[in-house]
Amino acid sequence: MRPEFVINPDLLRAFADVARTVFGYQAEAIAARDDKFTPAKLAQAVQKISDFYISKPSGKTPYELPGAPAAYLLYYTLLNHVRTLAVFREAQNLGFFEGIHRAIDWGSGMGAAWLALQDVAPEVLGSSLAFDRSTQALDVQRALRRIFAADAVTEKHPLTIDDRKLREFMAGGNPDKTMAVFSYSLTELDGLPDWVLDCEALAIIEPGTNQDGRRLLAIRENLIRQGYKVWAPCTHQGACPLLTHSKTDWCHDRIQWQQPDLYSAIEQHLPMKHRTLVFSYLLARKKLAPPAKMISAARLTGDQQNLKGQTRQMVCKGTEREFLSWQHRHGEPPEFARGELVQIDPAAPKKGADLRVIAGQVVRA
Questions:
Q1: Number of neighbours of residue 155 by Cβ within 10 angstroms
Q2: Beta bridge partners of 204
Q3: How far apart are CA 255 and CA 303, in angstroms?
Q4: How many domains does the chain have?
Q5: Within 13 Å and on the Cβ side, how many CA atoms surround 306?
Q6: Does residue 20 share a domain with residue 73?
Q7: Which of 14, 28, 132, 275 has its CA 20 to 30 A from that of 241?
Q8: E strands present in 240-329
């Protein structure tokens, strides 16, 4: 099974310190002055932000809503940090970061993705630029860095709202060593900015919704036409079967995570619960090809479904929309999670869209 993702305890302490010093947040739900935040008050702000995005799915981050900045720090930034943490660990396991020493985090916000890179692959951050439209969000990120990554509060790691600074950063370094990161920010744009195609590596993490997921599949298609090689979640460079064989399917991942007390104190006041986290993502490189092991691997793109007489699970290993099917008459099927990489015995017979597998014919890659 896939691991349960845990936030670095040092980073959690940084979140708590910034919440207290910048926003006057009180972790305990005790009597507080009107100008102090408690978990219940932050939950109200989270609900207002959620309502905003339901009405305006492509809207820009509404920091102007009452309590929104503090809610973004302790709720949305924490959630997005765990999602990006999962993607970057997958990237690290695949060797995706090889040769990358510069990063541009576009729509960086309070630093969910940048902090995940710092935790998982600090070698990528030889130099970096965090770009966002909100000075308030970047100020919070700067405060987090001072506690969690003090060495990164330097001229080599600017945080900016100025497009010219972004262009200067691109012009001032080797694009073959540069990665562009979009974490829950591409949804605010009509498409990828033109400078992105100069970068060697690209990491995109977006909401795991039908709309965002299918849009990312279309971006994947365009990147392949531009000469990029997709590393994950795909194990092939052909047309995506979820896009070509369905008008409703989309590719998304789901992970288990360990909720910190800082987050749980807020969630207990909310109707929406995040016992697991879903998201869509894409890792691509221009020159470096994926490792050879990916060519023969397959990605589980669905949850296991226990049906009458069989357990079925969507799998992706090429341009066909396919499913693994364990017939119950052959015994108890093994447990696999959505998102896992597996190797499938080529001798497994196929009936329609189903690969009729038995114990031992599907193993973790």
A1: 6
A2: 182, 282
A3: 11
A4: 2
A5: 6
A6: yes
A7: 275
A8: 253-256, 276-285, 297-300, 305-307, 310-316, 322-327
